[in-house]
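Assess this one:
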Amino acid sequence: MTGRPRRRLRRLRRRVTRSLASLLAVAALGPLAACSASDGGPSGGPTKDDGAPRPGTLRVLASSELSDMKPLLDQARKATGITVRPTWTGTLDAVELLGSGKADGAYDAVWLSSNDYLRLHPDAARRITSETPLMASPVALGVRPAAVQRLGWKPSDVTWSQVHRAVAEGRLTYGMTDPARSNSGFSALVSVASGLSGAQSALTDADVRGASGKLKEFFAGQRLTSGSSGWLATAYARRGTVDALINYESVLLSLNRDRRTGLTVIRPRDGVVTADYPLSTLSAAAPEAKDSVRALTAYFRTPAVQRQLTRQTFRRPVVPSVRPAAPLAAEARRELPFPGSRSVADGLLHSYENKLRRPSRTVYVLDTSGSMQGERLRQLKAALTGLTGDFREREEVTLLPFGSSVKQVRTHTVDPADPQRGLAAIKADTAALTASGETAIYSSLRSAYEHLGNGTKSAFTSVVLMTDGENTAGATADGFASYYRSLPAARQNTPVFPVVFGDSDRGELDRIAALTGGRVFDATKDQGPGSLDGAFEEIRGYQ
């Protein structure tokens, strides 16, 4: 494994360790609020849970995309008496937590989109004793009907090679979630790599190298990236110029139903990677918990529940006697091979992040007003310094600290020939930050857009705004809104991702995100020293 994947995995382990430490610290002080109907859990109202095992309660580490199963989990509780307490997470995070052994005793089961990646990690794989698929959803391509007509495609006959050719010729653009942070994105990456390499068995390094030219052409057509399917769909609908989305079939069909996107859903004829959503028992679980897993899987695999599941989520049933919901095409598709080793999987991710995908251009608009003096400035410096290990090759990073006005604008590029030079310069500029002045949020945002200019077509561009207060100097909110709306449409496609920190005005930041098509990230959730660090890392999936 190369140095950068190792650094990424080390950072992932540190993030998991911090999260677990925070969880244990809160539990030691008193009851911990569990997931509820309003905050991600399946129960009928707010409840308290200290994380300890309880009869009839199943503690599940679950893929965040499965949050749409909450109504069905509530029904399962009524039918079986088993209450599921999910902790929503990303697949890679879950695998690292399992492999570290820190999930032992904290969870009874794991419910991921797929265990394919988990099986590549021996330390994680040996901690599960059973796995039972509950439903299935293949990777698919959702295309605007006008684009399908323009390309002359017959949806049932489209191949990955046809999709590649349309992208390479500049006739198709698309959005996809970040493979390093989303299992749907990783499954899409494996599907494309397998399809374009012609691999007849598990992907190898040679397969990826052989298809690198086609893969680079393919990912040059990616116009949207995201850490979540929900924001990706919102950005797709907002822009109106992107032709397609790559995601799980169930996600695309749900978007058609819930957001009326009108996508033509295509499963490429030469094969796809399929999620089978196995509910897996952890070897450290108590016997009662293992019995609960068996009872829950038996319930979800009954024909009546399988029919309800496919109708409500558009995932495919795994019980042969149950027909898929009406929108699900019946034609069989070849299952594309998953990478056969962890080194191949991590190598594919590294290649995507640093060579295949379009580079990123990000302006970090950093509040260094007087209120940031002391601990807040120290947290900001620590978060930015730690983030340098995540910056990709070819990435352009601009630091724009401000107080009463913009203090300086410093831009650095992570040159593949000498990445450490750019990273060291970012660290040096971060260390030199000082706190003074008032808080000119909107004037500074305008400076960020002016810095980016018109050079946005060849890169994923975004602005990250970190502030611990509200606007007290410079341009007003209305003035910035007028400026933003006067920009050409292409420049308006650059979103602002505000970070709630300290005493910042959440409503003000929500309005900035809504205006620019961004999303607010909360660095106040645990109030711990790593809260800002975690928010910055989460934003990485959107850059």
User: Anything to note?
Assistant: The longest strand covers residues 360-367. Residues 336 and 426 are 41 Å apart (CA to CA). The domain at 359-542 is CATH 3.40.50.410 (Rossmann fold). The two ends are 24 Å apart (CA to CA).
